[in-house]
Amino acid sequence: MRMPSRCLAVCVAVAMSGLALGGCTGGKDDPTPSPSPSPSTSVSSSPSPSSGSPSPSPSPSVSIPAEAMQQTPEGAVAFLTFYYEQVNKAYATPDATLLPPLSEAECKSCANMQDNVPELLAKGQRYSGRVVDVTALQAVPGAPEGQQMVAFTMHQLAVNVVDQSGSVTDSFPETSGSLKALLKWRDGQWSVAGVG
User: Shortest CA distance to 150 belongs to which of 87, 100, 193?
Assistant: First the structure.
């Protein structure tokens, strides 16, 4: 039986080994910038496994900090930091509405993380604490206009998955790896388009 959020462990472990991130970015080493920004589309969620609740939609509880709303390299870095804070919150709460408005449909690692939250909800589970920390974030050149590449180190923290009674159902060890994220500016905000 597949346990929730294996992607985090697999993404970081594979990144550290220097292999392609097959389960997280569709087999590419780095997210590939699009040749040009895509046309504006509304922020909506991608389909997720049925969990007996309506599909997530942009949530009023997702309040993006002002520094992460700037169309600058620094704003992209602040947005990626905010995105991973929302990952932590989504897994610890759990809350399936937090992540979909912050990523593009083509972001496979984002979809994997999003899809794990309804699994947690369906099983009555949550993470006992923070899942990841991101450090050494740095905007790097090479993305087309309207996009920004950000290099960073992801630290998967040692954490337990617990059920409603607090019993541990799974555990993840601490590990880390160097990754890059591609962010797109659309509809007046950054959005994660790929992580690899």
Answer: 193
Q: Encode pLDDT of 100-156 as tens digits.
A: 999 999 999 999 989 999 999 999 999 999 999 999 999 999 999 999 999 999 999
CA–CA distances in Å: residue 36 to residues 60, 127, 145, 183:
30, 38, 7, 12
The structural domains of the chain, ordered by start, are 6-27+65-195 (3.10.450.50)
Query: What span, in angstroms and rounded, lies between the C-alpha atoms of 9 and 75?
Result: 28
Q: How far is residue 78's CA from residue 170's CA, in Å, rounded to a whole number?
A: 31
The whole-model pTM stands at: 0.75
Cα 26 versus chain centre, distance: 15
Measured between alpha carbons, how far is 83 from 80 in angstroms, rounded to an integer?
A: 5
